[in-house]
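Q: What does the predicted 3D structure of Bactericidal permeability-increasing protein look like?
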Amino acid sequence: QNNDLAEVDFSLSSLPSVFQPFIDLDLKGIVFPAGNYTDSAYEAASFTILDQSDSVLYLAFSEYFFQTSSLAYYTTGPFNITIAEETCRYFNINTEIFGSIIPEVAKYSVTPYPVMLKLMSTEIPVISLQQDSFALEIQGSLEVLAVLPDSTTQSLLTL
């Protein structure tokens, strides 16, 4: 499987076990940046799923699959997002509105200009699976920029 950002390589991690009512097929799925297959820095741990006989198909994904996905997508950049008036019709914040929230911004911008937000992941997102939960931790930064009349930008603040 692949898309423009990442590819998935599935391989058998053990021979299939064939039983009377079912087949147990263990696949190891590694996600990597498109066109850049590399061995994973993560260790794939084996796990078991509870034996249930009331469904036709069971799928289970390990932290390893999500960790390699996180690394691949971090590497290719989709965790970096720019929000501007052109990309989001509900986004209509200008420096005047931002200045009323953060007074320091008002000092730097007397004329109201449109604002652009740049959200950037600064570290590989960490994904952890618990028995009844899925946690995603993203470390990042937010840069607020004023869009000037000549289409250049001026950084107002970074968080």
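A (community wiki): The structure tokens above were generated from the sequence. The first helix runs from residue 63 to 76. The chain has a mean pLDDT of 77.
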